[in-house]
Amino acid sequence: MSGQETPEREAVVDACGCEITRPSHTGEVEEPVTRLWQVREVQLGLLSGALLGVGLLAGLAGWEIAELVLAAAALLVGGSTFVPGALRRLARGKLGVGLLMTIGAVGATLLGQVEEAAALAFLFSLSEGLEEYSLARTRHGLRALLDLVPKEATVLRGGRELVVDPGQLVVGDVMVVRPGKRLATDGIVRAGRSSLDTSAITGESMPVETGPGEDVFAGSINGAGALEVVVTSTAQDNSLARIVHVVEAEQSRRGTTQRLADRIAGPLVPGILVAAGLTVLLGALLGDPSVWVHRALVMVVAASPCALAISVPVTAVASIGAASRRGILVKGGAAMEALGKVRTVALDKTGTLTRNQPAVIDVATAPGHDRGQVLAWAAALEARSEHPLAAAILAATDQVPPAQDVEAVVGAGLVGTVDGERVRLGKPTWAEPGELASAVTGMQQAGATAVVVEVDGHPVGAIAVRDELRPEATEVISRLGDQGYTVAMLTGDNQVTARALAGQAGIAQVHADLRPEDKSMVVSRLRAHAPTAMVGDGVNDAPALATADVGVAMGAMGTDVAIETADVALMGDDLRLLPFAFDHARRTRAIMLQNVVLSLALIAVLIPLALCGVLGLAAVVLIHELAEVVVIANGVRAGRTRQQLPTLAPLADPVRVEGAAV
After folding, report:
1. pLDDT digits (tens, 9 = 90+) for 275-286
2. Distance of alpha carbon 342 from alpha carbon 363, whole angstroms
């Protein structure tokens, strides 16, 4: 879109086949809806209900004219939320529940039942508002991505360092990335060595060492060494931009997906219209036309899916409320329906299956040295370091002797003096493990990062650090398997680490070394076989969350973009919420189907009775109102959960085995 064009607006079809126009991602920024009363449909629905209520009171007081005027106003206000969209869709040859509700309201009005038409408009507009509120909360999740792009970038041009806007970077530029700074775009390292925190992009739980010739990605955080990076993609086409593109495309796909009620209304609407037309035509040929016109309108009112329209939203609202009280936030009835159909569960590793807190899982020692002393030497040096592994080693010991002359060797490790002895701590390729080589190999095969401790040139120990599984992860995977779900792990971590943790958790299907777009592709393949839920917590999971039939975010640890992109957010870190959410959603969907069947059965019975003249308008209206009470009461059952959440046991300490890799 050129800079001179007017920002586009996209029309999204809501749950009941009515259009909601909203700014597209390429246009102006719209303020997020954070309160229910901010939704236009809710505002108009409540106003319609208030007018209708005042009108009924006026009727009880004997003010019939005032009652009629207020009911008509309520009808106009409520109808404004769905009638225009239904008519626009009709002009394009598309039918939905909104059109049938419009016909019902018009039919009731023509028969003099303005109050019934107003009640129909009030109920339907309110259900529209509830659904729109759940959708509105998902429109602004991409804003969090902007925080990952630095406001400025340093580039070498003409032999000088210039500070420019990231949008001004071109392919071939050389960026200077100092320690602690984020990369403004993708590139290849030309000079320098460092470690990068790439968790936001790849999901890699441990720092990634990088040097000349290595690819690096926008949003990564540089470690201790300065880097010169040759730009390989512009700000509009880098890793983060691709995440935005995938999320936008998948949210658009989701927005146009038809709901159950609308799929039913597709054949129902033309069927009712044809039946009403034939009734008028044949009636005019066989008898008094006015009688058959009256019966045809009564039939249309009888076919108005009042119970159908309100049954699913009421069930969804009751169910969503019950789930939220247990720390499960479900964004709308469509998400609850989809959650109840899931048969495959794809789980991110870092921060979802694991705690995203690297811990010491093993310490191997050379003869004559003990575990405590090895950890103390390592902690003495790590106390002066900002490396992500430092916190894990410091947490594993209470002994932190003072160290002098500590220096960081970029891309290798640390060196310093402890109690007069020269100590080195670093990668096995830098600090030679010697007789501990087999132990180091075992640590690496177990998916851990191994660091070797040398004292005066002799290896005295090796320490294994790994991001461990959540304590409840194995139990949750087992429960999901027992309930018939297919479980897969998706991660940006390396194959060795991924398979080691997957085996520990009991997951057979593992997809590793994935970038965000790769995760999205894997989820697409899983969706081809069965409805799929993706569970993740980071920016790198956003495309997969958007691609899945249902995206589930781990809320307490999750980033804003993951929570906003997902359909469901688990507000606690307890994975046991997951099988509970699936069970609750399946029960909710069953109640929804019960209400739909009951509503359709009612219509199937009322239509022939209205056609034969057995029931008049008053009787049809009364039966509809009673049916609404029944389906609402049944829907409220979804607010009562059948099981209590288990109490999570205190977190266990990471497993430590002396002298052998876990």
Report:
1. 888 888 887 777
2. 42
